[in-house]
Prior knowledge:
The chain has helices at residues 77-80, 112-121, 136-143, 153-168, 188-201, 216-230, 250-262, 293-302, 306-314, 320-323, 343-350, 356-366, 380-387, 404-407, 414-428, 434-440, 443-449; strands at residues 3-13, 22-29, 32-37, 43-49, 54-57, 59-61, 84-89, 129-132, 134-135, 173-177, 204-208, 233-236, 267-271, 276-280, 326-330, 372-376, 392-393, 465-468, 489-494, 497-501, 504-505. By secondary structure, it is an alpha/beta fold. Strands 1, 2, 3, 4, 5, 18, 19, 20 and 21 form a 9-stranded mixed β-sheet that branches. Strands 9-10-11-12-13-17 form a 6-stranded parallel β-sheet, sandwiched between helices. Strand 11, helix 6 and strand 12 (233-236) form a beta-alpha-beta unit.
Amino acid sequence: xxxxxxxxxxxxxxxxxxxxxxxxxxxxxxxxxxxxxxxxxxxxxxxxxxxxxxxxxxxxxxxxxxxxxxxxxxxxxxxxxxxxxxxxxxxxxxxxxxxxxxxxxxxxxxxxxxxxxxxxxxxxxxxxxxxxxxxxxxxxxxxxxxxxxxxxxxxxxxxxxxxxxxxxxxxxxxxxxxxxxxxxxxxxxxxxxxxxxxxxxxxxxxxxxxxxxxxxxxxxxxxxxxxxxxxxxxxxxxxxxxxxxxxxxxxxxxxxxxxxxxxxxxxxxxxxxxxxxxxxxxxxxxxxxxxxxxxxxxxxxxxxxxxxxxxxxxxxxxxxxxxxxxxxxxxxxxxxxxxxxxxxxxxxxxxxxxxxxxxxxxxxxxxxxxxxxxxxxxxxxxxxxxxxxxxxxxxxxxxxxxxxxxxxxxxxxxxxxxxxxxxxxxxxxxxxxxxxxxxxxxxxxxxxxxxxxxxxxxxxxxxxxxxxxxxxxxxxxxxxxxxxxxxxxxxxxxxxxxxxxxxxxxxxxxxxxxxxxxx
Length: 519
C-alpha cells in the first residue's frame, strides 16, 4: 500500500479531453498527478471528499493582463474562485518587458529574464500561475519609441534580437496590439519579420487586431499574412464584432477563418462571454493623435488640432444612444465622480452639454488620458455564435482581490466571471456538453499555447485541479457591482497545494511563471 500527498475521492472526473466523465479518484504526489481511477489502496496525508462534485484540470484563462498585478495584491481572487490555475498574460502588445532605457517604472523590466529574476529575488508571490507573451508594443516602444513611423532596418534587427532573447528565456510567443499605439504604427513587413523569429522558437503570435468591426476582414487578413509568410501559428485575441453596423456577421467572419485554414494558415482564436469590451477611452481617438502616446494626445487636445480629435471621437459618440454605450470604470483617481456613470450622464448632467464627443475630450483632458471605460458594443447573437465554435476562452481581465477598497475602480466583470460565465452559458444555452466546455478551458488552451504538462487529468501531469459543482458554477459579478467572486468552485489545487479549500481561499500562494524551458 502506497502513500500520496493528497487523494481526491469519489469525483466525477472530466479529464479535459472531451470524453465522457467517469467516477474516480485522483492521487497527487510531489506536485504531479500520481494516479487516476480507483485509488482505494492509497493512503494520503490529506483526502478530499468530492462525492457529487466534478474534478477537472485547473482552468486556463487564455487571455489575461495580470502581468504584474501580484505586486499590488497576490491573492488573484478574481481568477482563483473561478477555478483558474493558469493565465496567459502579456497580451495585446503589452508586456512588462522590455522597457525603454531610463524608464524608472518599477513594474517594467529590461528583459523577461530580469522579470523572472526579480520575482524570485524580491520574494514576490502570486496565487495563480502565469505564462507570458512578449508584447510587440513594448518592443517597439523600447526600440523605436512612440513615433508614428516605420522601423528602420537597424531598429528592426534590434527588435528581433530582443524578441529572440525573451523567447529563449521562456516567453510563449509574441502578442500584437494593432489597435493601440505604438503597435498600430507597424506595417506588414515588420510583423512578418517578427513572426519569423517566433516561428523559429516554436511559439505563436497572438493579436488584438487592427479592427474588430468595420474592417475586420482586412484585419484578419493582415494577421493571416504573418502566418502565411513566416509559417508561424497566429491567434486572434478576443474575437468579436464591436461596431453596430457589422452585427450579425459572425458566421461570415468564421467562414473566412475556416477558408484561411484550408489555405494552410494555422489560425486559432479566443473570446470572452460578454457583450461589452473594456479599455482606455483613448481607443476612441484618431490614431494619428496618439503619435507620441498619451502626452501627445493631450497636446493635440490643447492645441489647434483639438477640433480634429473631437471629430474623430464623434464618429463613435454622435448621439445620446451611442454615448450611453460608454460606462466609465476608472479615472486614474483624477475624477472619481465619473466612475459608474455613462458618457451620456457625464455630458448631460455634469458638463451640461449634448455634444458627447466634446464631453469625451473633456474627460480625457481632466483625467490626463487615463480614463477607462466599459463599452457595450457587441451583440449577444454574435457572441454566442463565436462561443459555439472550437475556440479558447479568455477573460481579457486581471487577477484582482475581492476587496473593493484594494481594487479602487469599477472593473469589467469579466475579471471575476469569464470562465464561470462560459460554463454557465454552456449549461443554460446548450452551447456544448460539460465535457466539451471543460476541454475548451483546459486542454484546448494548453495545446494552443504549448503548455505541455497541463490541461488534462492524467498521471504525470502537473497537479493543477479544480473541483466544482457543474450545476452551480456561475459568476456573481455585474457591471455595476463587479467585485464579487464566482460561485460553485469548492477546491482548487495548484502544483499539488490547496489554494481554495471548501470554497474559501487559503494562505497558499502556489502560482509561478510557466516558461517554455520548464514545461
